[in-house]
Write a structure and sequence with these properties.
Layout: H1 5-9, H2 16-24, H3 28-39, E1 43-44, H4 45-52, H5 56-68, E2 72-76, E3 84-88
Antiparallel strand pairs: 1-3, 2-3
Length: 90
């Protein structure tokens, strides 16, 4: 079990090349959500749905796929601790 600061915080930094290679394998909805996060982050799931014009269910699926690939991280919102916000791991 490692206790490095990166792993302890759950935030993984990826190089641009590694990020693009992992993203290439994901569905179009995940690519769109990543593009929205590229222009404005952190965003909540609802904000991502509004910005991407995707249904909530599709945004949830995209975020799950992005998190599995370690392309997106999440934390609780400072404005509303009931919500999580998402950001890119680049």
């Amino acid at each position: 079990m490692s206790t490095s600061p990166v792993e302890a915080s759950g935030h993984v930094e990826l190089s641009e090349t590694e990020f693009r290679n992992r993203l290439r394998e994901l569905p179009p909805s995940a690519k769109l959500v990543a593009k929205v996060l590229e222009t404005d982050q952190p965003l909540s799931q609802g904000q991502l749905a509004d910005e991407s014009l995707l249904p909530d269910r599709t945004v949830r699926y995209a975020l799950n796929r992005l998190e599995e690939s370690e392309l997106v991280g999440s934390r609780y919102s400072f404005k509303d601790a009931r919500k999580q916000v998402y950001y890119l791991n680049t």
